[in-house]
Design goal:
Radius of gyration: 17 Å
Strand content: 25-35%
Shape: globular
Helix content: 25-40%
Order of helices and strands: EEHEEEHHEEHE
Number of strands: 8
Strand order of the largest sheet: 6-7-3-8
Length: 165
C-alpha cells in the first residue's frame, strides 16, 4: 500500500498489510438474538474505542453521561428494530450513575476538518434501577457495538463495545 493509501485514525497512520483467509466471517445478528442474549446486570462497562462526541445545539459534548449514551443508542435501536423500546426509558436514565471512568480526548482528522472526541472505558452502576429497568439498558449496551454511539458514527466515530465487569 502506498503512502497515499494510508488512513489516519485518531492521529495514527494505519496501513493494511494483508488480509488473512482466516479473517472471521461476519455472522448475521438479529434484534431478537440480541434480546435473547441480554442479561440485566447491576453494572455495565462500555469501552469507547474510537473518538466519541455528542451534538448539543451546534456544539460538541465530550462526556459519556448515561442520558447521552443510552439515548443515542435507543434512537438507533428504534430506527432499525422491529422490536421497539419505549421512549419512556429516558425517564430512568437519570438514576444510572457513573461508578468510574478512564477517558482521554482524541482528535480525529477528516478531509477538511478535525473532530475532538473521547476514548476509554466507563463503568455504569444500575443499582438504583429495577430489574425491569435494567434489561433495556443492558440490551442497548449489547447493541452499541453494532449501532455506534454519538455523532458521526458513519465516519468511524463512536465505536463502542460492552465489556465484562
Amino acid at each position: 500500500i502506498s503512502r497515499e493509501d494510508a488512513m489516519n485514525f485518531a492521529g495514527i497512520p494505519v496501513h493494511v498489510a494483508s488480509i488473512s483467509e482466516r479473517s472471521p466471517v461476519l455472522e448475521r445478528v438479529t434484534h431478537e438474538s440480541i434480546m435473547q442474549q441480554t442479561v440485566a446486570d447491576t453494572a455495565i462497562a462500555l469501552s469507547f474505542r474510537s473518538p466519541t462526541a455528542f451534538r448539543r445545539i451546534q456544539d460538541q459534548y465530550l462526556f459519556p453521561d448515561p442520558d447521552s449514551v443510552f439515548s443515542s443508542i435507543l434512537s438507533r435501536w428504534n430506527a432499525f428494530s422491529p422490536c421497539q423500546l419505549s421512549p419512556d426509558i429516558r425517564i430512568f436514565l437519570s438514576r444510572i450513575r457513573i461508578a468510574r471512568y478512564q477517558l482521554q480526548t482524541r482528535m480525529l482528522s477528516f478531509k477538511g476538518f478535525r473532530q475532538l472526541g473521547f476514548c476509554g472505558t466507563v463503568l455504569y452502576n444500575l443499582d438504583k434501577l429495577t430489574v425491569d429497568e435494567r434489561f433495556p439498558v443492558a440490551l442497548l449496551s449489547n447493541f452499541a457495538y453494532l449501532s455506534g454511539v454519538g455523532a458521526k458514527t458513519t465516519m468511524g466515530m463512536g465505536i463502542c463495545r460492552r465489556e465484562s465487569v
